[in-house]
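Below is just one:
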Amino acid sequence: MGKIDEKKMMETAERVKNWGKWGEDDEVGTTNYVTAKDIAYAASLVKKGKVFALGMNLDNNGPQNGREGRVNPIHCMLYTGTDAMTGAQAEHKQKEPPPHQKGDKFYPGAHADDYLTLPLQCATHWDALGHVFFHDLYTDEYFMYNGYSPKNVNATGGCTKEGIEKFKDKMAGRGVLLDMARFYGKEFMLPGEGITSEDLEACAKKQGVEVRRGDFLLVRTGDSDRRIREKNWGSFCGGAAPGLEFETIIWLHDKEVAAVATDTWGAEVRPNRTDMFDQPWHWVCIPMAGLPMGENFRLDALAEDCAQDHKYEFLFVAPPLVITGGTASPLNPYVIK
């Protein structure tokens, strides 16, 4: 594999570049590979009616530690049962009946209400294509996927190009799980352990499944569920982690997958195999290949079922929230078998 230097970065970026492949106005990248036929086939894979929810809970027990300003979701109440029982809620509600209601008495009703404050990159989420910019080391310019300028991401509109809402009807099709931890004969992979392209290919062969054009590829290391069981996130956010080696982006590009998701904080192996770049796999995955990526998926329960029935392909449905201009979206992905 070797160290990732400037030459390797630029050569790989050019190798996986998908700019213009689906037209100069394209904003959804490799999800263009998914066809109606692919979705119909994925639906035909549902045999047991069994649903697997792959999302983390949106609460204060999540993995975020404040790195880069990302915190766990903050859940606050507007109205509670106590407010209703003590009459405090009624004091804030309309006491007079609306014009269309007539009668001697009017009861304003009681309910619970709340709101959630959260970074869009917290918990289980998709990254939008507007999330990462490519730095051309030869020209010292920055680019979004398909050659758009990063100026299209601003403080008032967010991602005016390639926002997460562009995927609102794109994240459904044939899902494939590659259970790398089991492939290596482990319950879970350890931080710093990398997954090569050869390993991905060998795992698929061992499981009897083919990774095809338009697939949603799920890669299990066992990392997130292990830390949830241990109730200790440790260095999960931004620290050492198992994950994909830099060169796997070429394999994913050549396979023409629609999207890739893992059960780690950043998908790629950490420490990264470089002294020059932070998150080098991200550098080319999103802005050059236009490949959407998901992070912090929970895959252990799905992996156990796949090991039992030897079925590693399934219907995958994971729409983002329709957040206009968002760089990401939390979600609760579904696998249905």
In short: The longest helix spans residues 6-16. The longest strand covers residues 172-179. Residues 6-68+118-336 form a domain with the Glucose Oxidase; domain 1 fold (CATH 3.50.30.50).
